[in-house]
Amino acid sequence: MVFKFLRGEGNERLGSVEAKVQTMLSLDRYEFDLAMSALLGDVAAEEVNADLRATDRKVNSLEREIRRELLVHASVFGGIDTPAVLVYMSIVKDIERVGDYAKNLLDLARDGASFAEVPDVEEWRRLSAELSQFIADAGAAFQSRDAKNARNLRTHGDTLLDLFDERVTDLIREEHPDGQAVPRALAYRYVKRVVAHLMNLLSAVIMPLDKLDYFDEDPEDRLGA
Prior knowledge:
73% helix
């Protein structure tokens, strides 16, 4: 586990970075919830657009702050914390990307997509709540360095990735007179990327440094663990 040496050894030097990582994840979840509320027809897209994009700018700003802090930290402490610095550099990009896909989901709603009356609206509502919780759970597993929970979440994430691929295939093969097939297929692709980036975050808890950042590949395309 990459971060094992950081726990129980009085290492507080990266505490500011850790706190900002958690803030980024909380903001990501807020962005995602706003986007899905618009797609599901619970709120007009334009009513949440400014709020979501302002929140995303905060996420981007925090990413830059973290990178600056890590560069300073590396220059002061040299190689002693190099593994941690490399991990944080990797995962903050994954966390930032979650917000980008939330914007993409909102843009579907701004372009006229609405899942309020699609046949699978209840599944979308369930997935919206489930993925929102997945963001929170991934952040908690990372914060606590809970390897068991991270593995369970990774397994659940792979199940979700398979489900999203199946749903896209179904939409391609079937007739959908409601006009929402393309937006739904795109939305499945976007939420798939959200889950994949969160799985990269979880990999920092359970994988060695050289095997981070590959869970955004489909399972059959990943290099051997």
